[in-house]
Hints:
Structural class: alpha/beta
Helix content: 40-55%
Strand order of the largest sheet: 3-4-7-9-11-14
Strand content: 15-25%
Oligomer: single chain
Shape: globular
CATH architecture: Alpha-Beta Complex
CATH class: Alpha Beta
Amino acid sequence: MGKLGAWSNNTAGQIGISSYEKNPLDIEYSQLSIRFDPEYGVLWTEMKPVGIPCCTRELLDELDHHQKTLEKCGGNIQIGNQLHPIRYAVASSLIPKVFNLGGDLGLFSSLIKSKNREALLKYSIKCLDVIFARTRHYNFSLITISLLQGDALGGGLEAALASDVIIAERGTKMGFPEMLFNLIPGHGAFSLVARKIGVNHAERLILSGKIYSAEEMHELGLVDVLVEDGEGVEAVRDYIAKRARCSNGYMALQKARQRFNPVTYQEMLDITNVWVEAALQLGEKDIKVMDRFARSQQKLFGKSELAQHSGEAMQKFVVTGRGTEMAMGL
């Protein structure tokens, strides 16, 4: 298999990639695992970031490359001499108990302290590009699914919401904790949540800073399918198999929903710019909270095994100190 082109990191987190191959299965990634089930046309994209399982520049660049490759393949995977249509694209994680913890807080803190607006905006636009590409289905007909077998926080939840369907195991924790350091999620949260469960619910979720259980998110309507722990992969297969006979109708419904209330790039870009300006206005106390959160992540994921479920660790953070004060004020 071909390997991804040479990386060249700079302060803005941009990467030079030599070319975009036509077959997504022919590319090796260091932080993604790609596989394809030709029976039902299911493409699995599994994240396996190094270190803290958050939206690092490296992970974002690999996701961006992978998604552009999907666009170029025209919705078909070649296996041998045969072309197989991609009917479903599943996003999941190979990190135990974690889908994705969101933005790179260490990077955020550094760029905010140095007032590096250009680098912060470039990072934010890369997040936006990855999320928006999934909302528009890579320019071909398919149904996208996010499988949450672990926690999805902040930008990680935004990434999950970019899919048409969210399937979550009961032990999963979800939420937008950005208000703990006086900020909001800025890469699709409001646009995507508001379209799925309404503006009022979107505002409450974002302003509360609360970490919710999968059961609570299912009751709200943000999680579409709730399953027992360890049954997520089988639930995806069941979901797809049960819809195989009427797959054309489901595809048409997804297109109709997108046409009825489309998410535009300009809308998301405008909100991203609001986020960048708000981030640059954070005070010393806010940044200290962010740094504390980042240190907690580093401590937790610097170990060979997770000592504590990440969502539980975040919940503990929420109900102590400043988190409690903010939650009560809301």
